[in-house]
C-alpha cells in the first residue's frame, strides 16, 4: 500500500487519519470546534495573562512606510490597576481587528508569545516579537488565517486532491490562463464536470482557486479538529469535498437523532419509574392506614378497660 508522508512530522503511515492518531499521542492535546481563533479571543487571552503576570498589554500592528517612525506598540497601565474592573471595557475600546493584536507584556516589559504565552525575545520591533519561536508563529497563523492555511497546504500537497488524485491547482491555472472559449472543453474532460451547471458556468466565466479545491480538516471541526496544525489538513478537489461534506452532514444528523432518541428514552424510563412507584406508594399508605386504625382500636380497648 502506498504510504503517505505527513507534512512537518515526517511520519510514514497508510492514511492521514492513522497518522493523525499517532501524532496526537505524542503532541500536547488540542481540541476546538471553531475553525479559526479570532482577534477578540487573542485579546482576552492576553488580558488574562497580563493580569496574572502583573504586567500590561500593548497593541501590536504591522509596520509600514507610514508607521516606521512611530511606535507600533501602545502600552496600557499595569494590569493590576487597569484590568480588575475595566477588562471588558478595555477590549471594546481597542481599535478594530484590522489594527493588529493585543499582546501581553510582563512586569519587566518582556512581551509574551501570542501563541503559547511564554517570554519572547526583546530584539527587534514589536511586530517581530509577537512569538517566541517559528513553530509558535506557524501554529498561530494556521489557526487564525485562512489565506495562510491554504498557502501552506498548497505548498505541502501541490494542490493534488488526496482522495481522487486530481491535480486541482494545476487545472485551475490552466483554465484561468486559457481563453474563455476553451475553458468549457477543458472542464468537460475532468472529474469536475459533474459539478452543477451554475458552478461550472462561474468557473468558465471567472475561475478562482477556491472553485477547484478546498482545504479539508481530516478530523472534522465539529469533532474538535478546528484551529489545528498542518497535519490535520488535506487538499480535496471540489467534487470530493462536496461528497465528504455531505457525508459529514449525514453523520451529524444521525448523531443529533441518536442524542434526541436517548433523551426520549431517558424521559420514558423516568416516567415508567414514576408510574411504577405509584402502586408501591399506595400499598404503603394502605399499610399505614391499617396500622393507624389498629392502634386506635387498641387504645380504645385500653381506655374501656380502665373504666
TrEMBL record:
Q: Which GO terms describe its cellular component?
A: nuclear replication fork
Record has Hydrolase as a keyword: yes
| A Pfam family matched in the record | HNH
Report the superkingdom from the record.
Eukaryota
CDD domains from the UniProt entry: HNHc
HNH nuclease domain sequence ranges: 191-242
For this protein, what is any one GO molecular function term? Answer: DNA endonuclease activity
Q: List GO BP terms, alphabetically.
A: DNA repair; replication fork processing
Could you tell me the keywords of this UniProt record?
A: ATP-binding, Helicase, Hydrolase, Nucleotide-binding
Q: Which Gene3D superfamilies match?
A: 1.10.30.50
Recorded protein name is HNH nuclease domain-containing protein
Organism listed in the record: Etheostoma spectabile
**What does the organism's lineage look like at the top?**
Eukaryota, Metazoa, Chordata, Craniata, Vertebrata
Amino acid at each position: 500500500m502506498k504510504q503517505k508522508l505527513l507534512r512537518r512530522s515526517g511520519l510514514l503511515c497508510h492514511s492521514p487519519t492513522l497518522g493523525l492518531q499517532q501524532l496526537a499521542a505524542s503532541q500536547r492535546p488540542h481540541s476546538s470546534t471553531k475553525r479559526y481563533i479570532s482577534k477578540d479571543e487573542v485579546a482576552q487571552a492576553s488580558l488574562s495573562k497580563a493580569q496574572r503576570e502583573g504586567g500590561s498589554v500593548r497593541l501590536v500592528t504591522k509596520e509600514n512606510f507610514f508607521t516606521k517612525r512611530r511606535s507600533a506598540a501602545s502600552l496600557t497601565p499595569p494590569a493590576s490597576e487597569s484590568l480588575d474592573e475595566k477588562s471588558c471595557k478595555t477590549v471594546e475600546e481597542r481599535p478594530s481587528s484590522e489594527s493588529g493584536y493585543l499582546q501581553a507584556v510582563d512586569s519587566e516589559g518582556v512581551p509574551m508569545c501570542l501563541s503559547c504565552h511564554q517570554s519572547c525575545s526583546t530584539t527587534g520591533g514589536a511586530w517581530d516579537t509577537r512569538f517566541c519561536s517559528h513553530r509558535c508563529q506557524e501554529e498561530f497563523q494556521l489557526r487564525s488565517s485562512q489565506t495562510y492555511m491554504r498557502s501552506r497546504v498548497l505548498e505541502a500537497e501541490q494542490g493534488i486532491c488526496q482522495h481522487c488524485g486530481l491535480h486541482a491547482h494545476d487545472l485551475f491555472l490552466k483554465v484561468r490562463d486559457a481563453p474563455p472559449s476553451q475553458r468549457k472543453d477543458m472542464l468537460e474532460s475532468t472529474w469536475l464536470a459533474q459539478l452543477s451547471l451554475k458552478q461550472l458556468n462561474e468557473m468558465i466565466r471567472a475561475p478562482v482557486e477556491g472553485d477547484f479545491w478546498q482545504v479539508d480538516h481530516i478530523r472534522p471541526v465539529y469533532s474538535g479538529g478546528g484551529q489545528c496544525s498542518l497535519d490535520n489538513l488535506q487538499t480535496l478537489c471540489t467534487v470530493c469535498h462536496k461528497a465528504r461534506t455531505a457525508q459529514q452532514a449525514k453523520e451529524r444528523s444521525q448523531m443529533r437523532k441518536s442524542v434526541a432518541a436517548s433523551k426520549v428514552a431517558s424521559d420514558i424510563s423516568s416516567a415508567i419509574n414514576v408510574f411504577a412507584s405509584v402502586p408501591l406508594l399506595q400499598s404503603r399508605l394502605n399499610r399505614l392506614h391499617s396500622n393507624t386504625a389498629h392502634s386506635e382500636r387498641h387504645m380504645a380497648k385500653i381506655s374501656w378497660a380502665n373504666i
